[in-house]
Amino acid sequence: MQTKQIGFLEFVEQGNAHFVIPAYQRKYSWSESQCEELWLDIMRAARDDRDHFMGVLVCAKGGENGDSTHNAASASDRDIRIEIIDGQQRLTTLTLMLVALTRRLKHSGEPVDALPRLPHLTLSPDDDDTLQAVLTDAPLPAHASENIVRNLGFFSEKMTAENFDAPAFRRSLARLFVIEVEVASTRQAQTIFEGLNSKGVPLTVADMVRNYLLLEESRAEQTRLYDEYWHVIEQLFAPDPGSLRLNSAIKGWLTVRLKGARVLGAGRAYSSFKRYYEDNFAATKESLLVELRGFCLMWAESYRFHAVKKFKSSCDWAVNGAATLTANYPLRPPDHPEAAARWKKQMEEANENW
Prior knowledge:
Helix 10 packs across helix 13 (285-299). This protein is of the alpha/beta class. It has 15 helices and six strands. The chain has helices spanning 8-12, 32-48, 88-108, 125-136, 146-159, 166-173, 186-197, 205-214, 219-237, 244-257, 261-264, 269-280, 285-299, 305-308, 337-348, and strands at residues 2-7, 17-20, 52-64, 80-86, 120-122, 176-183. The chain is 51% helix and 12% strand.
């Protein structure tokens, strides 16, 4: 097994590479929301003039294309067959992005000679006819791949917007990099694929938010921020196996802080947080932790009322910038005052460990 860091464009332009998705792999399945997250990551990298890591690509180089069992006739005899064991979704999506950029520049009359060449890519049988039509600008087949057509349309629409900065975007493409893992056998490839995708306990929303906020800081600053904020937040919900309660609190904070966060659903909580911090937030990481800690003090009332009830009336948690979505809504009196009073009394008398 050989591992190396390589630029994405360098990876797709190596030699006469013919990338092949093995028949056992799933179809191209990325949704528009996943394309949007990738688009935002690349545009942020362009805005900040920084590198962006695209993940791990596991591949097996099969020598000359003569040993190909799928669509071999479409490739030159000199092409080097590279099977993509893990990473076909990103490779296909970035290919569609390059197609959209090429079309955009041709339509506007801008030079396209400096663009990277489009990858020579063969997908699964259900998707490949559509991809080849897209790559050659030919008519789509009768039963075109819905995901390929939709996602190409998404990128094309983004690139025809008036505020699209084509030069900055082209520069950012050169700043994308991957970790290429080249394996020698299918058995070795499967072991690595399983290790990347199925081993261990998945990261929770809380894990990813914590790592995002603390990872780039110095060791001393990490320790200080963790002790003053994150450890306090965690203890509010303890015991909390799997961080389920803390995850719920973070999703609740996003719901009242971000427009549309509820619509994105629980599975998009981390991407919603990242979008808020990258694109809307203008203060320091510490002020965000102050706000999150303050919100969690009140949110924890649902779990351990006694531990935080003294903060309920004095904690002004929304400290960053614009008001929350709920800030302008006054509290309405309860429809059943007697029932509300009874419930409040029960909460006040609840066991602290409940």
